[in-house]
Amino acid sequence: MKFLAQAPIMRHLCRSTLLISSSYVAKLQSIPLFRVDDMRSLSLTFLMILAFTVAGCGSRKVSPTASSSNAPATATSDDVLTSAIHQLRPENFGVNSTPDKPVSLLNSWRFKQAELQKITDQATIDKPVAVKFPSGWLSPDDKPRLEQAKYDSMDANHVRDALFNRVVAGYLSDRGQGELQKVAIIVDFVCRNVALWKDDEIELPLLPYLCLQLGRGSTEDRAWICSEILKQLRIDTIIVRPKSAKKSTGDNWLLGVLVEGQVYLFDLRLGLPVTNDSNSSDTPIATLAEITSHPEWLEQMSVNEPYRLTVDDLQEPAIFLITNANFWCYRMHNLEQALPPSDLCVLYDPLMDEEGRIGQLNRVAKFGGWPVDSLKSWTYPRLQLIELRSPTEEKVQEGQRLTVPFSVPIPVKIDDEGKATIGVPERKMQKTRAEHLLGKFADATSKYLRIRHLEVEPNPPEIARINRLAAEDAFYWTTLCKYEMGEYATAVELLTDYIKKYDRKGRWYFPARSLLAQSYARLDQLPKAISTLERSSSDDPYRQANAVRMKRWGAQAKK
After folding, report:
1. Can you list the pairs that 78-83 forms with residues at least 24 positions away whose Cβ atoms lie under 8 Å?
2. Any idea which of 16-25, 67-76, 79-88, 252-261 has the lowest mean pLDDT?
3. Which CATH number does the domain housing residue 452 bear?
């Protein structure tokens, strides 16, 4: 896909999509370790990371102060905050607004609040507040950014992500009855919407929001996204590993979700909960406390080969907290307390205890009965950031390939002499994908159809290639919308058409096969579900999950 980096159309897109560029760079900056002070020294890295954006090649400097605020001088602090939050909503941020303006508005709100507090001798909102964390959990160099009173671009992304995850958590949890069922629905949704990288694909370092937008990621990415969504329901998550593991990498781990007094286990490589009965379609989910007495439950999670974890591995496991330092900043407490009712979300969750509030560390330790000093920080987010700082040329080009479809439609005008003029990308694909993930499945379906039609419209070769990429994404994501709406028969029809059209050359071929089988299963057509997956290949990242599902469906069909 070198044409994406070399073709003239790409150079034009680089000049004409500053809005998307700045928003996506801000997304990539949203990990706590990315400090504002690092921006100058990492300018070269940002130029490389820009290639991961939706055809963007420029960014705007994000102002951390209120000096550039466009808020009227007579506006109240509530008015300013309402405007900032409106711009930070996921359907607007990065589509209709850039990071600099909402950041400026947040700081304008902070200054107005500080003025009000001075009247009552309580001016705390404009002062740094100390942040505590165990040694080794973060670099001491991160403290200034975490403790500062001013808001910056990382805060803007944090608010955007929280607003987004609140909506996702809301409509998904509405499908369940109790806490555990809601958790299972959310985990299933994330695994369905984040397709695993194939063995021959280039794995990109992605942050949760962009990872979910692209629909591609690793097992660890799935865990990270689940954690961010469940945070909005105030549910804690952990990584459960064998204590004997020498490294905190590799896939010999399970996601632990702390609800209803138990640690419930999920295998995110399989996209399935660890269950205690393979003969039921709606099985109870195994807990960490009971799994150690039932080796057969783990054996049911694999077919024709040993499961990667044993009961001995889970007797005294190592526990890693999935945490996000953006939640530790006290300025997020101030902001959360002032949010409009329609935008209430979790912005603040300190790691350590504070007066009148137990921190996440002690909360998790108390929940599981673990010594506090035995808990560790999950390092995956930090490793992702390190890789983001030094992307290879190969990953830059792969990032371009995955993100450029978000720019469509791209208008083209042909003059009387046959010369093509490329207009500003309309980015409707990006907005439609956001609507899809926000639960507007019917609207997204109709808009995806328009994007699919771009494939047959006459265009210059470079535009035609981009339109084909976007059309394929829109095709597959339409099937996901139909599945989410419970229209399984239509999902079967569309998935069958997708597989016939693209076969193994399709970028979504393997997840499409798995989703087709699950759609058949939803229709109680278990023999068809099984036959869909009978043909397997060694490069299918879903082969183990498919084998387990076929085993379970076969047992159900015999009943």
Report:
1. 78/338, 80/105, 80/108, 80/109, 80/112, 81/105, 81/106, 81/109, 81/338, 81/339, 81/340, 82/340
2. 16-25
3. 1.25.40.10
What 8-state DSSP symbol labels residue 535? S
For 42, 52, 387, 429, the CA distances from 47, given in Å and listed in that order, are 9, 10, 14, 24
Tracing tokens 């099985």 back to the chain, one arrives at 283
The boundaries of the domain holding residue 530 are 427-557
Q: What is the DSSP letter of 369?
A: T
Query: Interhelix angle for 219-231 vs 380-389, to 10°?
Result: 110
Phi-psi region of 511 (alpha: psi -120 to 50; beta: other; left: phi over 0): alpha
Structure tokens at 37: 């002070």
The residues, any chain, with a CB within 8 Å of residue 433's CB and separated by 6 or more, are 213, 406, 444, 477
Q: Judge whether residue 277 has pLDDT over 70.
A: no
Kindly state whether residue 437 falls inside one of the protein's structural domains: yes
Is residue 264 assigned to a domain? no
3-state secondary structure of 265: strand
Contact 506, 534 (CB under 8 A): no
193: CB partners within 8 A, 6+ apart: 212, 215, 437, 480
The predicted structure's pLDDT at residue 2: 42
Name the average pLDDT for the chain. 84
Other CB atoms within 10 Å distance of the CB of residue 42: 18
In this prediction, residues 515-520 reach a mean pLDDT of: 98
CA dist 325 and 137 (Å) reads 10
Could you tell me which residue, 50 or 164, shows the higher pLDDT?
164
- Mean pLDDT for 486-495 is 98
Cβ count within 10 A of residue 551: 18
- Partnered with residue 255 across adjacent β-strands are 239, 266
Which residues make beta-bridge pairs with 285?
Answer: 275
Contacts (Cβ under 8 Å, ≥6 apart) of 59:
18, 21, 22, 25, 46, 50
DSSP state of 62: P
Structural domain count of the chain: 1
Query: In the structure encoding, which two tokens stand for residue 90, read together?
Result: 């996921």
Q: Which residue has the higher pLDDT, 190 or 250?
A: 190
The DSSP secondary structure of 188-251, one letter per residue, reads HHHHHHSEEPPTTS------HHHHHHHTEE-HHHHHHHHHHHHHTTT-EEEEEE-TT-SSS-SS
> Pick the residue with more confidence: 348 or 462?
348
Four-residue CA torsion sign, 395, 248, 299, 282: negative
The residue written with tokens 């209803």 in the block is 260
245 pLDDT band (50/70/90 cuts)?
Answer: low
Confidence of residue 97 (pLDDT cuts 50, 70, 90): low
Structure tokens at 30: 């949203």
What is the pLDDT, as a whole number, of residue 65? 38
296 falls within a domain: no
Strand-strand pairing, 318-321 and 376-377 = parallel
The full length of the chain comes to 559
Distance CA 103, CA 126 (A): 15
Q: How many CB atoms lie within 10 A of CB 379?
A: 16
Rounded CA-CA distance 349/228 in Å is: 12
Residue 440 lies in a domain: yes
In DSSP terms, 316 is beta-bridged to none
